[in-house]
Specification:
Blueprint (H helix, E strand, L loop, with lengths): L1 H13 L20 H9 L2 H21 L4 H27 L10 H18 L8 H32 L4 H30 L16 H22 L21 H9 L2 H31 L4 H13 L1 H15 L1 H24 L9 H40 L4 H29 L13 H28 L4 H10 L4
Length: about 500
């Protein structure tokens, strides 16, 4: 019975919400996104999700704590990659926006080109030769980090832009992003389950399975293959929509060298600035927490691999409610107030566990109640973050309409390049915060939990509490400044002759 209910709820999420026929000045078909097309598009999140989970949760722990690379060198490598992304993401958006192909449209060919290089580089990144010196290990890490980031730019920027093009309906845009987020978090759960249970389990050789260097390469290879399959499904499962997405066909084309001139136009759209700011800041909070999460599980909470699995499964129980609530509340409350509500939930779930730990209000380490408390806050925090991400991406599609009204061009690629960069900024700045925390605490490397001083472990909780306060409150402030209501968006679409 429960299984049937879950399937019916999933199907209802995939159905078109509040669909209305759309018309444009061009002779196009009515765009209603079918269940298979939404599912195919959502599956395309696979490679991005796998990379994000590996980078956010495993990258720092693996290179610093398992291989012994200094946090400073890890930070330098990520900053170099971020500098490259600052140019490659908007340029890719501009190239994709101005590409024309009758069979492949503006997005699909680039998505296809980006998959294989990203996959190969991701696998090699986590499989360095054991003979490498410290400098050689840094160069290996830097090179394949750059290849992964560039490859994912080629795939990811067109992929996210495609999501904004599939529908012009205010509510259905949120529904499409909800489906994508459903797949995103399903892939995320698989990363943890396969990693903790199959490749990095506790064993007599290791006090914590995360210290098992030999398990990482086959783990990453397995997850990358799963991600590639999902991304290929998206390319070929949505390609038939190319003939329907035609609003851009009368646009003037710009050369990629004009990218930053076009970005200046986007910077003049205040909803875009505040939305990007709020989105980036909440993702930085997520990135910092993710980079330190394994340190928390191993050293602060001292969870077994089985307990880590339960804590990881908690968000899965709220996955379907999270994406449904995002769609429902955005439709009922409008997008901005719903985003603020979800953001507040995420912030509180990042504050309360660490504050309670420092105040001595939590059960002692090793008590099973502690695991369930951490699991509960992990699940509720996930619900809040999911709501913010779903609705923010839907809001950006609305901003693309505003930009078209002002400039006369459809430039989803350029705008979603900013969100793509924000996601990478999450990893880089979040990793920087995490690395700085470990350096300030002089956190020891390659030690089992029982070998680390209690004051050092308590410092992890204090740093996490301060990080949540700074970035969480700043994010909510930015979202509070976003201005575009449903009525204002309807008027924009009326002027564009979409309605």
């Amino acid at each position: 019975m429960r299984r049937g209910l879950a399937l019916s709820v999933s199907a209802s999420l995939l159905k078109d919400s509040d669909m209305a026929s759309t018309k444009t000045a061009l002779p196009v078909k009515i765009r209603q996104v079918s269940i298979p097309t939404k599912a195919a598009y959502g599956a395309g999140q696979g490679l991005i999700s796998v990379k994000n989970m590996l980078f956010h949760f495993f990258f720092l722990f693996y290179f610093s704590n398992v291989l012994g690379v200094s946090e400073g060198l890890v930070f330098i490598a990520t900053m170099i990659a971020l500098f490259v992304d600052a140019f490659s993401d908007p340029i890719m958006g501009q190239i994709s926006d101005n590409y024309r192909n009758e069979k492949w449209g503006r997005r699909h060919k680039f998505m296809l080109w980006g998959i294989i290089p990203t996959a190969i580089a991701l696998v090699l990144l986590f499989a360095p030769p054991t003979s490498l010196s410290a400098n050689g290990l840094f160069l290996w890490m830097l090179f394949f980090l750059l290849v992964v980031r560039i490859g994912l730019t080629i795939y990811g920027v067109p992929y996210y832009s495609l999501g904004a093009e599939l529908s012009t309906n205010y509510n259905e845009r949120t529904n499409i992003v909800s489906v994508r987020e459903l797949f995103n978090n399903t892939f995320n759960i698989f990363v943890f389950l396969i990693g903790f249970i199959i490749f990095l389990p506790d064993s007599p050789a290791f006090e914590d399975g995360m210290m098992n260097q030999a398990g990482y390469a086959p783990f990453v290879l397995t997850m990358t293959i799963i991600g590639v399959i999902g991304s290929l499904i998206a390319v070929f499962g949505t390609r038939h929509k190319v003939t329907d997405i035609r609003r851009y066909k009368g646009d003037d084309r710009n050369h990629w060298r004009e990218t930053f001139r076009e970005l200046k136009k986007a910077a003049n759209i205040r909803p875009f600035i505040w939305l990007s700011g709020g989105y980036s800041l909440i993702l930085i909070l997520y990135g910092a927490g993710s980079s330190l999460s394994l340190y928390m599980g191993v050293y602060l909470w001292q969870l077994s691999q089985g307990a880590k699995t339960i804590v990881t499964l908690a968000p899965f129980l709220l996955l379907i409610p999270a994406v449904i609530l995002a769609s429902v509340l955005a439709a009922k409350m409008d997008k901005k107030p719903a985003t603020l509500l979800f953001g507040a939930i995420y912030l509180l779930c990042n504050l309360i566990p660490f504050a309670a730990y420092l105040m001595g209000w939590l059960p002692p380490i090793g008590d099973s109640r502690l695991m369930w408390i951490i699991a509960a806050f992990n699940g509720l925090g996930f619900l809040g973050l999911t709501g913010v991400l779903v609705i923010s991406n839907s809001m950006l599609a609305d901003v693309a309409d505003m930009m078209e009204l002002r400039t006369g061009k459809r430039q989803e690629g350029l705008l979603y390049a900013a969100f793509s960069f924000a996601q990478k900024l999450t990893f880089a700045v979040g990793l920087a915060v995490a690395s700085l925390t470990l350096m300030v605490l002089s956190f020891p490397k390659q030690l089992e939990p029982s070998q680390v001083a209690q004051d050092t472990i308590d410092g992890l909780a204090t740093a996490s509490l301060l990080t949540a306060l700074i970035f969480g409150l700043a994010s909510l402030f930015c979202f509070s400044r976003y201005q575009m209501t449903r009525e204002e968006h309807t008027e924009i679409q009326r002027k564009l002759d979409i309605l």
